[in-house]
Queue: 4 jobs
Job 1
Amino acid sequence: MKTTTYPSRVGETPIGLGLIAEETLEEEAVVEKLEGRVVPYSKIPENEIQNVFEVGDDRWIVPQNNARHLNHSCDPNCYIANNLDVIVLRKIYEGDELTVMYNEVTIEAYMKAGAVLPVWDDRRSFDCYCGTPKCIGRIDRYVVPVPADPNVRDVRMGTVERRGRAMFANRRLLKGELIERAPVIPINQKQWPSAEKTILSDYAFDWGEHDEHAAIALGYVSIYNHSYAPNAQLEELLDELMMEVVAIRDIQPGEEVTINYNGDPENKDALWFIERKTRPKPRPATRKRGI
């Protein structure tokens, strides 16, 4: 049986053995593959509990090849594909350590679970010394990494337990400051009955001078969560087919950016939804300009 040769080797790192790139590698290069016995979590040997990788619903692999030396990083340069290949995320240079994230939950899996993170087994906890700006120090919980979007610098998408996705300030945002400007796709009255039968109905805003139409907002507009004490407000620009998110008070770095789904930030009327695991979508934008 032919053995596949990968461009990696086991070598010394500041924290012990690790997997090292033997050559400069481009994005999507395959550097190793997880090989070993796949077992349910309850069947993992006690002495291997910190060496396993989750590969499916209650399916864990105990690697028996060089892949068992893959170390964790809070900002990894590799990921494990569905076929168990270890694949490069970005360009890696010869001699660099190859790393993956041990405690990652994808945004897709997080949302499918009702915006609830899996229970972490304390036996798998350890102090992280990856030294990256994203390092959380102690690996004792699952996290949902969300890639940065170069098109939006002032806010970032993150997650809130039991509420799902949310938007957070990257820096201090001042009252009256434009946070995001996004185009919309209008849906007229004739088209709406068909759209209403699809998932789009959860994402649509009322649109038009008299809210006679609907619209789907692009960008991150549908991700902002509701609050009766919001720090931002939606505005419609009808003639430009755009929506804007504008700060209505100073917002601190790391603070969640919220809007009132009723439109008016002072409106305390009961909303159309009952509290549930996944976040509902906002009501229409609040002000209209251009008509």
Job 2
Amino acid sequence: MSWGSHTNPPSLYQVLGVSKSDSCTDIKKAYFKLARTHHPDKGGDPERFKEISRANEILSDEKKRHMYDSFGVTDDQPDMSPGMQGMQGMPAGFSFPFEVNLNDLFGGMFGNPPMNQKEPQRKGKKPAPAVQSIMITLEQFYMGHKFEININRQSFCLPCEHTGAISKEICKTCRGQGSVSQMVQLGNFTMHTTGPCTDCQGKGQRILEYCSACAATGYCTVKRTLTVTVIPGTKPEEVFIFPEVCSDQPTYERPGDAHIIIKEDINDPAFTLFKRVGDALQHLETNVTISLSESLMGCVVTIESHPGHEEGLFVKIPAGSFHGDTYCLTGYGMPLPGHIGKHGDLYLHLQVDVKPMERKLVATKGREALAPLFEDKVRTFTCEEDAIQTELYLYKKN
């Protein structure tokens, strides 16, 4: 049914597609039929579902339905009791024009809310999201990864409208008000005080039949599976958002979202060898340690644990490479999301580890071997030979 053709808002009967002559059972059936289509868990419009639920709540309750049919209002209005007659200290036949409540006079100091003042509880739109961090390896960031998270969410029970009861009746003791009044004698005055009804625990209704679908809890367990797909080259701290998959809460209009955050697994050894760098973390960098001999002569090194080369990545270091040099291998970094086949770069930072044997060889035979190449390039001195200090030793910091 479309409401666009109506100049005025549709009546509650039009919302459910029923007539005023239909019974409460017919109204319930119409509600369940619409709820299966318009419930948010089924892909329906949350505002439309709220409208349907509100119409059902009023029309399936005899007292609320009577008030709606008679006065066109949808909120319960407490019955106004007649004024107290012949109150002590007043002339006979004197009638109070209003009812006096101790809490109205003394600001609620007697523990009960002021009579006839029920503040409607305003619901929040949506609770804060539930956040879960998932650790994945460098290889999973490089190759891409897919995993599933199984959750059990608590959803409002449709058959009982989250009340835990299939059928209820208005409490006869308090006439649906949830509170009862009594007379209290204070000196020469007789005052009227209000307290919660003990027969219905202040709810104004008594349960006749509990809901078996939710075991009278008002909630049903719904199993859901969240699928997280990490594409190759995804950056750490990426947040995957799953809207409104958390449990229903009575204080909020809609269930909360789930946020899944992807993080680097600190227990993965690859993250101790490689570091992601660059504006989009598209590059990799690692340290390579070589000896002095390898630095002078050149060598082939094996880069272990590279996520794209399970057998190892073999790289030739040129002769004459020294400590602090950085070499770049283009296209051996992380995959670029959205660019199939393209990768960032790999940076190799050289560290030269001089072994004692190599130091000894350089100090002896090495000088003779290098003299023809470098002797004419060594700085000269103008002082006398005996003025040169030669008593020095190799100092190593602890």
Job 3
Amino acid sequence: MTKKERVRLVLAALDERYPFDENGCYLNYTQPHELLIATILSAQCTDERVNIVTADLFTNYPDLAAFAAADIAEMEAAVKSTGFYRNKAKNIIAAAQILLTEHGGEMPSDIDVLTKLPGVGRKTANVVRGHIYKLPGIVVDTHVMRLSRRWGFTKNSDPVKIEHDLMKLLPKRDWIRYNTQAIAFGREICKAPKARCADCFMADFCPSCIASQQQKE
């Protein structure tokens, strides 16, 4: 089986198991800047924890101006449970200030502009572009990294290199949905550190599952 043939099988299986909702997002938000902030907070933190934190955060800071004027100590306390809270608090306030002063309070759509914001890497930028502007981009989080390697789509461990490998391999129409479906599959079956290969509906064509079965034999 070629890599392209495996890609078609994987994408078809993901579509069947996890129908894609283009408006679906694991992070709760109502305004573009809230998605940006929630994604910044999601670094090294679960979406569930972020959603708990932002439920109060977005109430206490109802708009971009409130975030830009926030007290750093109060912001640190508000986001502490997400981890790395000092950097996250500093970046959130700084990003809000830049959005107000340099972008008129509007969220940029250009990835190079977004990644100049404090605390915003390509992952965060692609989340914003995909959900706010429906622009194709591949979000490389821990699930995408793990599954793309297990499926044999990449041998790299660097997120940027993985992103570019996947951009060459996956049809552009699947770039946004790939992350959402990979998260669902990673949480249900292909977990870290041990995948549930015995329960996997991709076992017949997944290199990792096949190798695991051969080792048992």
Job 4
Amino acid sequence: MTETRGAGAGNGSRGQRGRPAVEDRSARKRRVVMEAATALFLRHGYLGTSMDQIAAFAAVSKPTVYKFFPDKEQLFTEIVLATLDRVGDPIRAELSSLAETDHLPADLQRFARRYLAGVMQPTVLQLRRLVIGASPQLPGLARAYYEQAPGQTLDALAGCFGRLQIGDPQVAAAHFAFLVLGRALDKSLFCGDEPFSGAQLRAQADAGVSAFLAAYQHGQATS
């Protein structure tokens, strides 16, 4: 729910990291379509964007768009899930090293800041709003979003806290996530025109960690 391609539209396939050094003509066109679609979805929403508009904005033919994506739902889904990979994979990877820490308060604070900053990226927030808004039309994507973003991160947190012997790992993970994300995420989803500053985000992350450690100060949480 948290890294460093563009809006999730830079790669030909969701699982890749970084653009290939040399793109062939087909890969370049596919990337251009995804970048154009991302810009239009963020500007007009899922329902307000058509495949015709995407083709025109990408300066390609409509058959070219359909060559890569059979419908708008698959195109939107790939953009969203690619963004979640870009944001979430480094966050979850960092939890593996956090589980081995000898300096939990400092390392947990560092992780919390990165976690909150990743989730609060403008494109991530915009896509989250779009997925929530389109959930009646795209329930499968809404479920995939939850499972791949909050769900996977909570599972990774629980695994980390389990190895650190911090309380009930699943409960501790949920407490940590809500303490760290909390107000900033909720307010930004509803009031996107009032962004939090970097200092405000760091202060919220630090306060969340302090509250978490105060509640889970037994065992290794007191290291």
